[in-house]
Specification:
About 50% of the residues lie in helices and about 15% in strands. It has one domain: NAD(P)-binding Rossmann-like Domain (Rossmann fold, 3-Layer(aba) Sandwich). It is an alpha/beta fold and about 280 residues long.
Length: about 280
């Protein structure tokens, strides 16, 4: 049987990447459901603005600068959350970075950057919060925010997609390991999402501005709202879901990756042409 929270009300909810995009939308969705919020992000100024707004609406919020790529800082954050709010009942790994470019244009430093944040980051967060969750014996839930790139990666996203594939593997292993502790694990995989992630994206290649512009146009035309993804994150935790493609593109890619993987390359080519025309 899947492990589910049933309700997040009164639970301590940890959200990384909470200063913007999916993380911020998830913080608001959980605040509306009366969860106690522990928010982390590398951008403290923007995070504090989010926290101030939520506190003004009646939410209990602890907000701290957290770089998920630094395990010592993540561990310190976990200790403070336990001390100030209590044991986490829900952990949402929403922090992420993006590198766009061909495999040969993507540098060794780019690979380190993406893997440190998008794969090792969630591992650091889970390692920091899981001991107390298990010891409390109250169950719980972990949501790892991945992408449709976790099962269908196009050429310009080799590093990003590889990290998300790895996150899928981590989620599966945790789901198995934590089953006896009544702690569920969901991998949420949205398609295109219209968030500020492109603001700090590393874009490689001969014409980075053109590539960035094409990506921005595609997100504006086809991107899901962060709020829609946040609603699916909360629903996954409350229902005990495991793998959650979000949006039409993600559902189609999920099915094609399983049934007809040879069809993905032509499809990605059409999507690139759509982005360049939009």
């Amino acid at each position: 049987m899947p492990h589910a929270l049933r309700s997040v009300a009164g639970r301590v909810a940890v959200i990384t990447g909470a200063a913007s995009g999916i993380g911020r939308a998830t913080a608001r969705a959980l605040a509306e459901r009366r969860a106690l919020l522990a928010l982390g992000d590398i951008d403290l100024e923007r995070l504090e603005t989010v926290a101030e707004v939520l506190r003004g609406e009646g939410a209990t919020v602890l907000a701290r600068r957290v770089d998920v790529a630094e395990p010592e800082g993540v561990a310190a954050f976990a200790r403070e959350v336990e001390r100030e709010l209590g044991t986490a009942g829900l952990v949402v790994n929403a922090a992420g970075v993006l590198v766009i470019g061909s495999f040969l244009d993507t540098t060794a430093d780019d690979w380190t950057h993406v893997l440190d944040v998008n794969l090792k980051g969630p591992a650091h967060v889970c390692r920091a919060f899981l001991p107390a969750m298990r010891a409390a014996r109250h169950g719980g839930f972990i949501v790892n925010v991945a992408s449709a790139a976790a099962f269908a990666t196009q050429s310009e996203l080799s590093a990003y997609g590889s990290a998300k594939h790895g996150l899928a593997g981590l989620s599966q292993a945790l789901r198995d390991e934590l089953a006896d502790d009544a702690i569920g694990v969901a991998l949420v995989c949205p398609g295109f999402v219209n968030t500020p992630i492109l603001e700090r994206a590393r874009v490689r290649g001969a014409s980075p501005e053109a590539q960035r512009g094409a990506a921005e146009r595609l997100l504006r035309s086809r991107g899901l709202s962060a709020e829609r993804v946040a609603d699916r994150i909360v629903r996954a935790a409350e229902r005990g879901e495991a793998i959650v493609p979000v949006g039409l593109e993600a559902r189609v890619l999920w099915l094609l990756a399983r049934a007809a993987p040879w069809s993905l390359a032509p499809l990605f080519g059409r999507l690139r042409r759509l982005g360049s025309r939009t």
